[in-house]
Amino acid sequence: MRSLTLRKITVKLVLFFTALIMVSSLVSFIASMIFAYNVENEIRLNQQAIARTILELEARTDLSLEEILQIASTFMYDAEPLRDADSLAQLPKPPDQLPPGESIFMGERPFHGTTTLLKIGDTVVQIRLRPQNTTYGIAASRSWRSALIYVAIGAVLASVLARRIVRPIIQLNAATKEIARGHFDIQLATESHDELGQLTQNFNRMARELKHMEYLHKDFIASVSHEFKTPIASIQGFARLLQKGNLSDSERDEYTRIIVEESARLSHLSSNIIRLSKLENQEIVSRKDLFYLDEQIRKCILLLEPEWEKKAIEWDIQLDRARYPGDEELLQQVWINLIGNAIKFSRQGGLISVALEHIAGGIRVTLEDQGAGMDQQTIPRIFEKFYQGDAAHSSEGSGLGLPLVKRILDLHNGTIQVTSQPGEGTCFTVDLPIPTEND
Ligand code: ADP
Known about the structure:
Helix Hairpins
């Protein structure tokens, strides 16, 4: 709980400023106490000295009281008889009971400021600061230097704090500009866990993601160029050979066949790339046809007959009747790709099992072959674009089949899982949820 509240920058700021205010008010309070007390004490001593002078002059000279008071008065203090009736009424004792020659120190009104009273004969003399001088005026004039120092210390502390708070914001600002310029390598150091610390960590994560995406993008372009380069080079090579002439009929047929095959591969590749990029930009299934999935799968097996006949594949087909609302054309692509792969990676005379069953909330299609299988390194990568496992390098294909399957199933909120053992076979399990009214 404690660390949680301290993580909030607002809490930190409030605590800091409260501490700052407390420290500075304490310091200035103590200082003003010391100064005011000192000044008052000093005034009292000065007034007592004047009182002593007056008593001395009174005892040793013949000067009149008026003259004595004139001599005793200074630039700071005024000594004069107290005649004001109000002030006389405020005395601690009636004037006639005041002991002669004794000085009384008065701190309160109406004896404004610090006043010393002295009884000479019947007259009460007051020694006080001249009106232009006050205790506070004197104290203030002495403490302005200290006040300046407090302000300076406060300013330094505040600027250190402001710098500490603002530094990560300045860093983030500069880093954002770098990102905008396309430099994704940037990472900011942070040890703090408050909101700014979290913002910095999220910024770092964003930069890493952007860098990863940039890498994927570059990688995609590199793969596309590579996939196109090979068939184009082969078409070019065989076309040159054809140009040369003096070829036998069988050579010409062979070269022409290769050119036709490679062009078909190129056209297949480009239509797959276009299809995938369209699907990647699509967020929902736009068409929802209600059709029989089992029929569709059967039709796909028939469509691929030329492929499996060559390999004398055997089939074990167990399809429950299942109506499904989805994009019929896209889902056909799923079965063609999966069944096509099963045939491609099967041995001569191998068995392929296809099953469709109803499960809770949806439909499950299982496709199992006894073909080449995949090793543990290949399995996690088969849904990456352009990825082809070792066993596939020699055979035709572009590594876009399974990414297409995955994307189409994603759009239908479906899932695909694979289990495989090298040399033993592969099993793909596709789960398609039946969409509810709200979907
Ligand atoms: P390709 O065009 O190469 O078949 P895919 O995306 O369809 O591309 O498949 C990617 C890789 O997954 C293949 O190169 C292969 O290594 C592996 N693969 C897919 N299906 C199977 C299967 N039934 N048996 C073994 N390996 C498979």
